[in-house]
């Protein structure tokens, strides 16, 4: 059985509180190209976040993604894993950013 690494679910504003800790953050990407090792996206609360990867992406990413990694200073994340959800159309627009921000706030108290 695979073990689960504990992590905090954060948005852009809460990222700086978790420097050096494992986190999960949802970002909306315009586009991240195949074999790139860094990209940026906007968090659910509109903050620009830069993601640095140890291994290059395997394919093009766009739309909403979940980045699992370690929070770093200055709005950066050292990403370990990328989970893609939506890549176009209606599903991208229906992601509940307000609900996700409320979840982040609730979990941080």
From TrEMBL:
Keyword match Nucleus: yes
The record's annotation in Gene3D superfamilies points to: Nucleic acid-binding proteins
**Record's Gene Ontology CC terms?**
DNA replication factor A complex; site of double-strand break
Q: What is its main location?
A: nucleus
Compartmental location: Nucleus
GO MF assignments: damaged DNA binding; single-stranded DNA binding
Pfam families, per this entry? Answer: Rep_fac-A_3
Q: Which UniProt keywords apply?
A: Nucleus
- Would I find Nucleus among this entry's keywords? yes
Q: Which family does it belong to?
A: Belongs to the replication factor A protein 3 family.
Q: What is this protein called?
A: Uncharacterized protein
